[in-house]
Structure of Probable transaldolase:
Amino acid sequence: MKFFIDTANLKDIQEAVDLGVLDGVTTNPSLMAKEGIKGMDNIMTHYRQICELVDGDVSAEVIGTEYADIIREGEMFAELHPNIVVKVPMTRDGVKAIKYFSEKGIKTNCTLIFSAGQALLAAKAGATYVSPFVGRLDDIGADGMLLIQQIVDIFSNYGYSTQVLAASVRHVPHLIQCAEIGADVVTCPLNVITGLLNHPLTDKGLAQFLADHKKVNG
């Protein structure tokens, strides 16, 4: 399973890189705004900085919703760095754009997936990744993990190369469930990844080892 970090914060990205487990980054306009990144020139500069930190795919989300705007923005992002993946919304024009990008050899991430049918359409159009939103489905009383399972099964049935990128992953149990189901990628905040480090028995055991060492060695 690949670990992507869902942020535009350079410090968090660097910390994930230093941990040695980071495979990529996903971003969106909201995350850019959270970091105070405004204006296309500043956004492009920020993406370059992210790509310089990460040896892996970096999803850059288009703002446009019309086909021509999606193509224009996507091609601009794709020219920025080889690691860039164009993040496209699950809409009619978005699917058309994914087909276009696929034929041009430009990697894509189809975002805002909330049904297996949407994921299937994106895969047929040639998406590199599909991003089903686990947490947002859970928020409305639906089963986000069931959707991950459905998509994994469908792609396996027909041999699609499109990778299942579980998004809106909120906590460690989400991540572990995605791993059990067989999602190709999870994207989540840094605290979810570092949360995998923690277990009370590890803390207790380490404290005991250190106490015993101190007794023996003074």
About this structure: The mean pLDDT is 95. The CA atoms of residues 176 and 196 lie 9 Å apart.
